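Translate sequence into structure tokens.
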Amino acid sequence: MVRGGFVLSHPGGPRRVIVFQYNPDTLTRTMKPQVPPDEPGDRLEALRLKGPPQESYKFDAEFDAADQLDRSEVDRHGLHPVLAALEACFSPTLFQLEREDERAGQGVLEIEPVEGPLTLLVLGRNRVVPVRITEFSVTEEAFDIELNPIRAKASIGARALTVDDVGFTHPAGLLFRRNLQKRQDLAALHFTNGGAEAAALNQLAREG
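Result follows.
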């Protein structure tokens, strides 16, 4: 079975992988088309697209320490390590914060926000998506005698990054372009193998 998860990479740093213990039971995917403002009578804009649709994901990732007791960090700390790893997707590191404080102490007036890791949501071969985490909540459902969580559910919301967000040459932009090509290839398979029903529907469209 293929497991989903996140892959994190900092500029110039190592890749870190968070594997979902159980694949999500459900995934809500929302796409908001990028279209010009709806102005009645503006015939030139009716069919135009301003850019890639804004795509977001919502799902739950469940973890149970009872099935991971062979891992030493789980045996000692419960689910704290995997939850901390998930939080690293959207939290600056201590080093980054201390560096920003040092620069502020030196009188640097314009300080750029720290850069988080490039986060990839991996859900099978056909879905490797650069994302930004937009929502994150954890429900801890059971604890060991040291109050380490041993069963937890993380509810995660994420927005896919496109070339509008990062440009064409950024690694996330390259991944977006690769995913878009893959979706076009998958759509072509469906259009090609439409069968008799598709032919009949197309004929009705022509006659209409």
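Note: The first strand starts at residue 5 and ends at 9.
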